Write the structure tokens for this entry.
Amino acid sequence: MLKPLLTATLIALPLSLPLTLPATAQDLPPPVVETAVRDHILPGFSALAGSSARLAQVAETDCTGQAETLRNAWGAAFDDWIRVSHLRFGPTEMENRAFALAYWPDSRGTTPKTLTKLFADHDPIITSPDGMGSVSVAARGFYALEFLLYDPKFQTDAGYACALTRALTADIAATTSAISRDWTESYTALILTPGSEYSPYHSTDEVKQELFKALAMGLQFTSDTRLGRPLGTFERPRPTRAEAWRSGRSQHNVILSLQALRQLALILAEGDANLVSDVEQAFDTAIQQATALDDPIFAGVEDPSKRLKVEILQQTIDLIREQQLANIGNKLGVAAGFNALDGD
């Protein structure tokens, strides 16, 4: 979560804010922070901005909901979002950007309700300059676009569906571009210079905690939400609560998330050979289990034998949370008792 006034600070920062590091050796950020920014965060958001821009370009050429090229472009951009979706701090949290890209879970069905109203009213707001910025976040981003691409209900009114598809893809492109730009032009300098005038972080330890929290939250979201929601209870499994089941991406998103979290975890292990080996083994086991499910939308949660495999995967991820997170926290010097899911 952003510190107070951080949004205003980021907006006010000059674009020429230098990305140079402090001059004195004792002020230099540790390699783990530099590596996380250079190898994980910046390339992740750059890739997302690039694939989102391509998605918007494809929509301008062919906005038909069932067009394979459009679905593929959406899938590629969505892949890149999943790979950075655990980085919920800094530029992603400004102006509700993360929610505007990914409003899910949606336990009350707000997204289809809001989309239905837009269609019923033929609301012209989507065609006005910056109009999508005034639309509810429930009707923006990758999950809203999934309805237009994969739910026949939203493909009957071809003219409005086309206009809304183009508006949504342009909005996604603008939002992801802003996130990537803010990371490059301002937030990288802020996170690498804790204690400086504009930085929201008072110390390097706070930066480490931010990265550690992102890893912990990513694991929890995949376990509790991506797997927990479709699992429901044994008596009442809920397969249609799985993430992106309409497009058949539920299992795929779990695998992508685990691969991205694996990369961040290995960076945070700071080159400790034993810890790196343990982290690699734990994540590789989880990824292998996720891949072996052969259950794209977790429909198997209603079958006891297939459900067991999903539960075992969830237990494996929870074991990573319990064991490897503790080891990484000790390595980073995260204070005992620090809850990575707490706010600032």
Q: What stands out?
A: Residues 204-332 form one domain. The first helix runs from residue 6 to 12.
